[in-house]
Every structure is written in C-alpha cells, then in structure tokens.
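Fill in residues.
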C-alpha cells in the first residue's frame, strides 16, 4: 500500500509517499529515522500490525518548508531520507 502524507496549496503539491510493503521489509535498520535532519519520520504499527515509517502529523502541513534544506537548492544532490531508505519505499512529489 502507498501511504501519502502532505498537502496541496496554491503553490503546488507537497507529498511524501511511503510504500508500506517495501517499508515492512526494511533492511536499512530504519535509517530514514536518523537521516532526516528535521526528524519527521517515526515508526508506527499500522492497521495490519506491521511496523512501518510514517511522517509525523505535525510535519505533514509544513513539508515544503521542512524539506527545503535537503532539496538541491540546499546543497544536496539527493535527499537524505530517500538515500537512507535502501528498500526504496520513500518518494517526494516535488
């Protein structure tokens, strides 16, 4: 299942998508938790009793601003959360 966290406003769509099927089988020891400089991810138990990452509720309405420092304009060539997620479960929409 693909879980989408974020929002759409007049400036665009800002979503982080997490493929929970890939996240369940994480071989990276949940590296996304420590890779994000804003500490936006946490592990929860979903409705199917699987442990998966999600974007904290307080972060979902500020993704455009919170993720800005990790985007290319902030000096990164790749996003830390996506690089850390070796199963490839995390995607950004913008």
């Amino acid at each position: 299942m693909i879980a989408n966290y974020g929002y759409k406003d007049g400036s665009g769509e800002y979503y982080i998508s997490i493929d929970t099927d890939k996240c369940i089988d994480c071989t990276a020891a949940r590296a996304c938790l420590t890779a994000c400089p804003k500490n936006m991810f946490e592990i929860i138990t979903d409705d199917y009793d699987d442990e998966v990452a999600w974007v904290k509720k307080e972060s979902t309405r500020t993704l455009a601003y919170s993720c800005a420092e990790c985007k290319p304009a902030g000096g990164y060539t790749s996003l830390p959360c996506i690089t850390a997620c070796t199963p490839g479960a995390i995607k950004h929409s913008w």
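Helices lie at 20-24, 32-35, 63-66, 80-84.
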